Amino acid sequence: MSTKGSSETIEDGSDVLIVLDTRKRWLSKVTSGKQFHCHKGFFDFDQIIGQPYGSKVRTNKSIDLTIYKPIPSDFLQHIPHSSQIIYTKDAGLILLNGGIHPGSLVIEAGTGSGALTSILAKYVGSEGHVYTYDNREEAYNTSKKNLERLGLESQVTIKLKDVSEGFDEEKVDAVVLDLGDPCEIIPHAYAALKLGGVLTVFMPTYNQVERVYIKLQEYSFGDIEALELILRGIQLKRNAIRPNTRMIGHTGFLIFARKLLGENE
Ligand SMILES: C[S@@+](CC[C@H](N)C(=O)[O-])C[C@H]1O[C@@H](n2cnc3c(N)ncnc32)[C@H](O)[C@@H]1O
What we know:
Structural class: alpha/beta
Bound molecules: S-adenosylmethionine
CATH architecture of the largest domain: 3-Layer(aba) Sandwich
Strand order of the largest sheet: 9-8-7-10-11-15-12
């Protein structure tokens, strides 16, 4: 998602991931004439301009930091947000099971901070498009800023609209819902999808899973599948390779379903 394309050399204006260790990592934009500061000191961005990604730089406190080219999960973890953003594990499955591919037309609601929007936009590429809806002005402004920062604004149309009024697009390849009450939006998702198109619903509770499942059956969706992804990190320490003591126990459930020809079409 770097605005600097596929260059392998750090340039003025490049996005970089600056890493001290597995916990202390910062996403920053290289700016000639300015400095990067952290609790381990500072360095001049000019010290890394022209260097290859993977280089190390020493701070004024003699601490080495490594400079990486950011990958999508780095952007997702560092994106400024005011609402809960999608986790990388769930975003990955949404792409693969949600029928989303380069060139897809995708509707998303709600936008939130634009974290999932950025992943969808990156994946559909310049041949596809993401129409994302949120009814909060703050979400509109934050996501707009985040998408511009990532250079993805041309692949996304952000709409400040309550989706209980319906979607403006028709015959899209995929609809992704991550909002408070997905059930009432299912008829609108059905109307917007092309036949065979995939609806993905992300929701935090079993109660919602049941309500969504019942509604999907009323609205001629088939191949309905409900999943929860549980991710366990592994401690990487010589002679002590084992699962981490702490983990995120729950993020949400995912339902995938495909639009069938039915009475509602
Ligand atoms: C959990 S956030 C979405 C986070 C997003 N997936 C991300 O990764 O940043 C849910 C969003 O849905 C929006 N929302 C809730 N109900 C809505 C509705 N009826 N129409 C449009 N947006 C809605 C909220 O304003 C909120 O920003």
